[in-house]
Amino acid sequence: MSPEPLPTRSIPDLAPIAFDDPRTEGSAKGTACSGCSLDIRAIYYEAAGKVICPKCRNQLESQLSPEGGRAGRFGKALGFGLLAAIAGTVLYLIIAAATGMVFGIVALLIGWMVGKAVFIGSGRRGGRRYQILATILLLLASIPILLSATIIGAVICVFAVWRAWQMNAGVAIAITGPYRIAAPTASASAA
To answer: Which of 7, 29, 52 minimizes the C-alpha distance to 174?
Structure first.
């Protein structure tokens, strides 16, 4: 059984290939890799609507699937988020002790810290489980604020939770291909 041929796509306005110079200045738009800017000669992939070479595809896939898999990413997100939540709570308590006042606005900073930490821990992928994790950690970190704040402080805490939720929205990047660059037609090479 022979392998199936790769699908062929035509890239419009394909310039002639100069075999003696791999980085020809007169290359047609769309034939360069979006990742490394090298000319693509035969096979390419598409990721998030961009054309990439096989080398950049491998790098992107390794970034999207860090070692440790799903459980490893969640554990890392939990650890980073927990550290940010503790640091934010300590910061709030230091500010409250130093000034003798309650600042609900600190919840926004804690929300950003927790949201960003969970997002980085998730391998910058985000998703529903990370949104829920960031929300729970932020609510736990906001307990001192909620216990001592006014209605406005509580509203600020809700806004902080919403922001942490947004920061961890899922990032889906589909990689399609491989595709083969079609040879220029006779009319294109005559022009």
So the answer is: 52
